[in-house]
Amino acid sequence: MALPFSGRKDGLSLSEALPDRSLFILVAMMSFLAALTLTGATGARALSARWAGGAAQLLTIQVSAPDQPAPATATSPQKTAAGSSSVTSTSAQTRADAVLARLSDLPPGTQVHRLSKEELAHLLTPWLGDASNSALPLPAVIEVRLPKGAEPPADLEQTLNTQVPGTFVEHNAEWSTRLRALADSLLACAALALATVGGIAAMITGLATRTGLSTRRDIIEILHGLGATDSYIAGRFAGRTGGLALGGAILGTLLAIAPLVFLFRMAAPFAVSSLQTTSMTMPDWRSLPDMLPHDLLIGLAGLPFVAAFIGWMTTQIMVRIWLRRMP
Amino acid sequence: MIRLQNVSWRRERKNGTPVLSGLSFSVPQGGFRWLLGPSGAGKTSLLSLLHVESLPTDGSMDILNKSVTADAPRATLMRLRQRIGMVHQNYRLMPDLSVADNVALPLRLQHRPEDEITDEVHAILKWVGLGERVNVRASRLSGGEQQRTAIARAIVHRPGLVLADEPTNALEETQAHKLLDLFGELSSMGTTVIVATHNEALIRRLPQPSLYLERGRLVREGD
After folding, report:
1. Which tens digits make up the pLDDT trace of A260-295?
2. N or C terminus of chain A with fewer C-beta within 10 Å?
3. Whole-model pTM above 0.80?
4. Three-class SS state of A55
5. How many CB pairs under 8 A join A and B?
6. What are A250's strand-pairing partners?
7. Is the dihedral of CA B198, B200, B205, B206 positive or negative?
8. Beta strands in chain A (DSSP E)
9. Contacts with B122 from chain A: Cβ below 8 Å
10. Do the Cβ atoms of B82 and A327 come within 8 Å?
């Protein structure tokens, strides 16, 4: 014969001792902040990595009057198809070709690319509008990507200028070092902010748990008298707070995704790795999921579980410490 | 088996006045003892000690063949407490739980299957005369009903040791005699029973050895 049990199995009534509204909403807010901070951290890390790697290895060379013949003094070692070098007079060469020929001296693995007229026009569109039919004399822009760890010759600009006067070399490492330091600082701030959010979440959970324990003191004493172990009581409380934290964090993370996607769409045109791929148009909404960094997606997916773990662990510790005072 | 050797207990571990001092006695498995003495003699304190709610400050104590020491792991003490049934003077029921849920607590803490719990709880509540009150909240029970619920909860899991502090206070004579018969039956089935009481009539009805306390000391032991 079945007994009409009340359904409150052990009398702790945790739905009353730890109400779902306050903790749930507070954790949702904390998770919202954590998701935004995580995105900032991911962005700062990506920029730092880019400036440490790609951008720092990039040289941009401008050659004025690129299609004029190079001065007769401009000679360069030409690599033949067989790989042997020979010195050739380049009086028939254009200034741009002379610079390109000179750049073949750079370390093996160096990628040299002269931007086409279309690429150059595209790059200048924000300033000049449609620059493809512009009457302005445009320089040749040569993008040089050095292999990792390689340094350009210190006298590169001087050498090029001697041979092809009016050549300007911009080495991105000069400004990327500062930007990288800035990105690293942002990353440290983001990590500190995440740790603070986690600490506040732990404190909120701890306070809620302590309140719940105080309201259930008599019940816990009875359960203890019946032989309920510390693990049992801590597990019951931690299960409740862990569940609430998980639910709150899922809500907070989902709410954060909308502004994050919007921000990413806005930032997408700036997240380019090369002058050739620069685009001033914002990507289509449908292509955004592919653009979001995978490590950010993994971080956002893991956020609710981290919040649940913080809630669960904080409660376990709090309850066990509190129970130590019990007979 | 219960064995105490020169056991003392102070509320404050250091420099406190001993509430119990120099207690030495043993009760074999299935033994029955009345715990007697004037108010303030230390009967409730001794029952708390035997229920492992407090630990001896001096001496050695074995409960159900387990040594109970101040440095024993808490989980071990809790598991030992699960094998002890305790009837408190103030019943200590969960006011918001039904009679059935209150009685089921010791079984649930032992993770027994729910169908087994249902059968055991039903049987014990029928026996104590609360078969029609299973779904009533404990806070709505009369004093006698609360006491019977507390007794049912103390014995539903068939503990190795049953401790009772004035268990018949709120019971009618018929119920008190019935409870006494139950304690006698439990004892004959191998459960050690220790009952603190002032009720002379009960002692006469079930003549068993007694432990007589005065000012925290065991002054007399035997029939």
Report:
1. 887 777 766 665 555 555 555 666 666 666 777 788
2. N
3. no
4. helix
5. 82
6. none
7. positive
8. 58-63, 75-79, 85-89, 111-114, 140-145, 167-171
9. 1, 3
10. no
Distance CA A55, CA B9 (A): 76
Residues contacting A238, CB < 8 A, separation 6+? A311, A312, A313, A315, A316, A319
Query: Which of A4, A230, A232 minimises the CB distance to B109?
Result: A232
Residues of chain A neighbouring B78 (CB-CB closer than 8 A)? 224, 227-230
- Residue B204 pLDDT grade (very low, low, confident, very high; cuts 50, 70, 90): confident
pLDDT at A79: 45
Give CA–CA dist B199/B180, Å, rounded: 12
User: What are the residue boundaries of the structural domains of chain A, listed by start?
Assistant: 14-53+176-323, 65-165
Interface subset of B 50-79, CB within 8 angstroms of A? 51, 53-54, 74-75, 78-79
pLDDT digits (tens, 9 = 90+) for A178-189: 777 888 888 889
ipTM over 0.90: no
Rounded CA separation A152/A58 (Å)? 10
pLDDT exceeds 90 at position A54: no
State whether residue B11 sits within 8 Å of chain A by CB.
no
Partnered with residue A129 across adjacent β-strands are none
Q: Does B109 touch chain A (CB under 8 A)?
A: yes
Q: Does residue B128 contact residue B152 with C-beta atoms inside 8 Å?
A: yes
Q: How far is CA A105 from CA A100, A125, A149, in A?
A: 10, 33, 17
All residues of chain B having their beta carbon less than 8 Å from the beta carbon of residue A231 are 75
> pLDDT tens, A16-52?
666 667 889 999 999 999 999 988 888 777 777 766 6
Distance separating alpha carbons of residues B32 and B206, to the nearest angstrom: 10
Q: pLDDT tens, B116-170? A: 999 999 999 998 888 889 999 999 998 888 988 999 999 999 999 999 998 887 7
The interface residues of chain A toward chain B in range 1-20, judged by CB-CB distance below 8 A, are 1-6, 8-11, 13
Tell me whether residue B112 is exposed, middle or buried, using C-beta atoms within 10 angstroms of its C-beta: 0 to 12, 13 to 18, 19 or more: middle
Output b/e per residue, A212-244; b: 16+ Cβ within 10 A: bbeebeebbebbbbbbbbbbbbbbbbbebbbbb
Q: Specify the residue for token string 């049912």.
A: B152
Q: How many CB atoms lie within 10 A of CB B35?
A: 22
